Amino acid sequence: MLATKVGCNMSDTVELVECLQKKPYRELVDQDIQPARYHIAFGPVIDGDVIPDDPQILMEQGEFLNYDIMLGVNQGEGLKFVENIVDSEDGISASDFDFAVSNFVDNLYGYPEGKDILRETIKFMYTDWADRHNPETRRKTLLALFTDHQWVAPAVATADLHSNFGSPTYFYAFYHHCQTDQVSLEQFHENGNVDLQ
């Protein structure tokens, strides 16, 4: 956990927050945080103040009825999970695709019953049958699987729940392919900011 790596006491929440706030940003971002497989390291936390309870419970209790909500997704948000697959830059072999789907199911689905059916269903749904032998296409569909699981499904569920109460709900899907050289994450990490002009 980040707090332990930078020497902050985790037994007292107030003390922990104060300690983290005093740390230079460089010390925080330089830490190697390894979340569980197919999870992200940081996300919203039910803290009792900003997020007082599980958002689904709050929505079901009508806490957000007076608010418009806009949420959405971006293409390729699951790239972090595809990058670690061997030779993913050149596409993904059929065996690597099968292994990645099996590994995904094994890491996220806690029940042994039905894992085989779930694996085969995911492979079927995330295979582009018109171009199933293309390694690059397999890479794209695997990226879609990880993006759908971590970002699309929760965003759609949230939008659906909010709209069920008749509250204004707006959803976007951002799909843009940059035409210029992409700024590397490493460049951003080294500088703390990047001049995009």
From TrEMBL:
Carboxylesterase type B domain segment(s): 2-182
SUPFAM superfamilies in the cross-refs: alpha/beta-Hydrolases
InterPro entries membership: AB_hydrolase_fold, CarbesteraseB, Neuroligin/BSAL
UniProt similarity note: Belongs to the type-B carboxylesterase/lipase family.
Protein name, entry field: Carboxylesterase type B domain-containing protein
Protein species of origin: Limosa lapponica baueri
Organism classification: Eukaryota, Metazoa, Chordata, Craniata, Vertebrata
